[in-house]
Amino acid sequence: MKLTELARTRNDEWSAAGLLRQPGTFSTAQHPVARIDGRDFVLFSSSNYLSLGTHPLVIAAAQEALETFGAGSGGSRLTTGTTDLHVAAEQSFAHFVGSEDAVFFATGYQANLSTIATLGGMCDSLTIFSDSLNHASIIDGCRISRVPLEVFPHGDTVALESLLESRKTEHALVITDGLFSMDGDIAALTELQEVCARHNAWLMVDDAHAIGTLGAHGRGSAEHHGAPLPDILIGTASKALGAEGGFVCCSHDFATLLRNRARSYVFSTATPASAPAAILAALGLVDAQLPRLRQNIAHLRSALGLPDSPSPIIPILVGDETEAVRRSAQLKELGLWVPAIRYPTVKRGEAILRVTVMADHSEEQIDLLVSALQRVSGEQVSN
Questions:
Q1: What is the pTM of this model?
Q2: Between the CA atoms of 128, 134, 138 and 144, what dihedral angle is there, to the nearest 10 degrees?
Q3: DSSP secondary structure of 143-168
Q4: Among this protein's residues, is 2 annotated catalytic?
Q5: Angle at 20 between CA 16 and CA 26, to 5 degrees
Q6: Of 86, 209, 225, 361, which is the active-site residue?
Q7: pLDDT 10s digits, 158-210
Q8: 181 catalytic, yes or no?
Q9: Residue 308 has what DSSP assignment?
Q10: Is position 135 annotated as part of the catalytic site?
Q11: What domains can you pick out in the chain, each with its CATH number?
Q12: Which of 86, 135, 239, 361 is catalytic?
């Protein structure tokens, strides 16, 4: 069979299962009201939680950097050189979360992938223990690390401890999301740290969705729990900070190792200077934007009858993939952009409508969403 024919067959199978997706095309920035596929929608799918991606000061900082450094970076930071803005962003992000050092990668995906792979390459005797709902970048990093892997049930520290007790390697690395991207639940960081301490295991936390949203000042999981930082903290700028790039927050020694051994740092062209410039501006605006985000989250959760949580990610459980697509389409007819999340992003038969809240949403827009969700489901919303 020709490649094109095989691809068409697989696409038809994917479509028949209700899994074929096409991205919406934006012709505006991700404001609360955005133009998608030629029509204006109230946007409830963006990870621009603090609305910093469209903040005038963030945009101005990026524009100034473009004028000074140009549209591209010219090469890898290690081989071609870095800009003072990249260095300043690393220092500022480390200070923001309270870590000794931070290494800036072009994306959060690269940060996870390269960190896990580098750890796998530096240890002769290592087992990785990964939460079953961890992000795809963690899953892929575990695969390419080529070390033994144990997947523990989501959030189950008892099962994790049992696995750690029976491990046969000298070193152990436990990995978890801090704020899970689909379910919107928060990892039990304190319990995980206690388990890791009892078994001399390292802990790595991906705070991609927690930076800017969790903690009194948006510093992430550790601040939210009143806990020390894990051994490795991954933070991204592409969510609440409204920019682009990922940070590995860690000790200075491990940061030096990553700068010399992490393949996507060494061999990938760096982000343009406009990215770290935007990050530097965004970090200074988190405290000002966070109260409004918290207010909107509380308003939506209360209106939906859901438990209190600082998470801006609110999954509306549907189950059947076809039904989730139907409800998402009905919401679009009502002027609301809420995606149906299906396999392989979530398990088969566990499709959701994934609602995300931004600081700049108005109460009227949130009330419109609540009314529409109840209308398309025909019942009380739950998660």
A1: 0.93
A2: 60
A3: HHHTS-EEEEPTT-HHHHHHHHHT--
A4: no
A5: 150
A6: 209
A7: 999 999 999 999 999 999 999 999 989 999 999 999 999 999 999 999 999 99
A8: yes
A9: P
A10: no
A11: 20-54+288-377 (3.90.1150.10), 56-283 (3.40.640.10)
A12: 239
